[in-house]
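Bit of a strange request maybe. I'm writing a small parser for structure token strings and I need a real example to test against, not something I typed by hand. Could someone generate the tokens for this chain?
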Amino acid sequence: MKEFRKLLASQQQTVQSFTAKVIDIDNDKKTISVLYDGLELSDVRLKSVIENSDTYILIIPSPKSFVTVSILENDINTAYVSKYNEVQEIEIKINDFKFSLNEKGFLLKNKNDTLLSLMVELIAEIAKIIVVQGTSPNVAALKAIENKFKNLLNDV
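Reply from user aminoacidic:
Good idea to test on real output. This should exercise your parser:
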């Protein structure tokens, strides 16, 4: 950290940005550690403010990818990611409502209910329908639709 402070002090700018390599991601703190010019900088913010808030937009970079880190007023404690080369996940949370997108699919959640769990419940109930006259639901087709939803949606 001292080396980073010296490097910043030598550059007489109020906003500084540099490209660095992601070396660690802390999902709990919503921060990353990066490597720049042989120096490690930790606690680089992924959110605008580091605090427990129920409302935020979060972009998580891919491990070992490159990001642009910006620092305000030569204060190393204000380091945040301003640009991303590769993205691992995007998350939006507004109180109890959460949307997340990653390589496994997307999650749409409100409190304890997810879109996937609701679709699976709905398909299971439709499959139980027995029609006396006419055609009952095609359970195999409903199961295929359920599997398509499971491939598209995430439940975690």
